[in-house]
Inverse folding.
């Protein structure tokens, strides 16, 4: 399987329709949300991208860790642990992004920074095993995409922060 499976631009056959429906549902919910409408200056495209990247990363990390456990891959405990930690981190980030009415910009920026760092660390760890595991290669790609989405969202949110 090619590492581009994680990419929303080139999904596997049959995957696209389900992903498109999910993306459409997320966008529709964001468009109708009163909390979203009240957030002036919020880059909803960057926000939706981050939500989707977090979801994809959480799934890739969970599958990667499970595959390592199922295959009985010895010496992979650090990679499995990092994948599970990254899955937890991206899940939390996604849920925080879905609740804009309670945003504290300082906390959101700190969470995105932590999520980005966790994703990059997990990607680096998984790439060390990419030659042994296609799942590690795909997980690393999903982690990198999520880290990039965090960075884009942090840049977009900086314009919403009060001047010091």
């Amino acid at each position: 399987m090619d590492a581009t499976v994680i990419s929303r631009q080139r999904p596997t056959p049959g995957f696209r329709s389900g992903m498109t429906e999910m993306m459409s549902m997320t966008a529709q919910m964001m468009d109708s949300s009163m909390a979203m409408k009240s957030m002036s200056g919020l880059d909803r495209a960057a926000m939706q991208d981050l939500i989707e990247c977090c979801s994809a990363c959480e799934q890739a990390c969970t599958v990667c860790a499970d595959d390592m456990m199922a295959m009985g891959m010895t010496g992979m405990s650090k990679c499995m642990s990092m994948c599970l930690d990254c899955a937890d981190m991206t899940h939390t980030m996604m849920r925080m992004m879905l609740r804009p009415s309670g945003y504290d910009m300082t906390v959101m920026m700190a969470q995105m920074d932590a999520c980005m760092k966790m994703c990059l660390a997990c990607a680096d760890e998984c790439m060390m095993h990419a030659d042994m595991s296609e799942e590690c290669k795909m997980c690393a790609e999903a982690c990198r995409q999520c880290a990039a989405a965090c960075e884009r969202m942090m840049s977009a949110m900086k314009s919403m922060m009060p001047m010091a």
Remarks:
- The chain has one domain: 42-157.
